C-alpha cells in the first residue's frame, strides 16, 4: 500500500520493486499507525493487568481499559498533530530560506498533521480493543488474566510482523523486540501494582 509520500519512479527492467522504492519514505501514516497500535495494545493491556493484580472483578478491568483507550487515543492524536505540525513548519521555513521557487508543489509532499493524528488515534483504538475484548466475557479472574496475556501476545506478533513487512525490515527481529517489550510492560505493571496492593495500602 503506497502513501502520498512514496516517490513514484519508473522501474528499470533489470531491477525489482524493492530495489527502486525507498521504504524510508513510507510516510507519516505508517509510523503513526504502527506506533499507535502498539501503544494502544501495550498501555491498555498493562493498565488492565495492573488493576487485575489487586481487583478480581471484570468491571474494574474493563472500566480501566476503556478509560485508558479514550485518554490514550486523544493523547496520541494531539501529540502527533503537534509533532507533525512542528515538523512541517520547520521544513517550510527551510524551503523559504533556500529560496525554493516551487514551495506550493513541495508542500504537497510534506506530511499531513491531520492524517497523522487520525491514523494515530484510530490505530491506538484498534490496539486497545484487543485486551478489552479478550477480557469482557470471562468471569474467572485467573483465566481472564491468562486470556488477556495470550491475546496481547498474538497481537504483538501480528503488529510486529505488519510493521516489518511494510517497512521491509527483518521480521523475526521486529516481532521479538515488540513481543519482549510488551511482556515487560505488563509484567512490571502487574508486579508493582501487586506489591503496592499487598503492602498495606487500601485499594
Automatic annotation (TrEMBL):
Keywords: Ion transport, Iron, Iron transport, Membrane, Transmembrane, Transmembrane helix, Transport, Vacuole. GO terms for molecular function: iron ion sequestering activity; iron ion transmembrane transporter activity; manganese ion transmembrane transporter activity. InterPro entries: Ccc1_fam (IPR008217). GO terms for biological process: intracellular manganese ion homeostasis. One of its GO terms (cellular component) is vacuolar membrane. Belongs to the CCC1 family. This is Vacuolar iron transporter. It comes from Artemisia annua.
Amino acid at each position: 500500500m503506497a502513501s502520498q509520500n512514496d516517490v513514484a519512479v519508473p522501474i528499470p527492467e533489470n531491477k525489482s520493486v524493492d530495489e527502486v522504492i525507498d521504504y524510508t519514505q513510507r510516510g507519516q501514516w505508517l509510523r503513526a499507525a504502527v506506533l499507535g497500535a502498539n501503544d494502544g495494545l501495550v498501555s491498555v493491556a498493562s493498565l488492565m493487568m495492573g488493576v487485575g493484580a489487586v481487583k478480581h472483578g471484570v468491571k474494574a478491568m474493563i472500566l480501566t481499559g476503556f478509560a485508558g483507550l479514550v485518554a490514550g487515543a486523544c493523547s496520541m492524536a494531539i501529540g502527533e498533530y503537534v509533532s507533525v505540525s512542528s515538523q512541517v513548519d520547520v521544513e517550510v521555513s527551510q524551503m523559504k530560506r533556500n529560496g525554493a521557487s516551487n514551495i506550493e508543489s513541495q508542500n504537497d509532499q510534506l506530511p499531513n498533521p491531520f492524517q497523522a493524528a487520525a491514523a494515530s488515534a484510530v490505530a491506538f483504538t484498534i490496539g486497545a480493543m484487543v485486551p478489552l475484548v479478550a477480557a469482557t466475557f470471562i468471569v474467572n479472574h485467573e483465566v481472564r488474566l491468562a486470556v488477556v496475556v495470550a491475546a496481547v501476545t498474538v497481537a504483538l506478533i501480528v503488529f510486529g510482523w505488519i510493521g516489518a513487512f511494510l517497512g521491509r525490515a527483518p521480521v523475526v527481529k521486529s516481532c521479538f523486540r515488540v513481543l519482549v517489550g510488551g511482556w515487560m510492560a505488563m509484567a512490571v505493571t502487574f508486579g508493582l501494582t501487586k506489591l503496592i496492593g499487598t503492602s498495606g495500602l487500601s485499594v
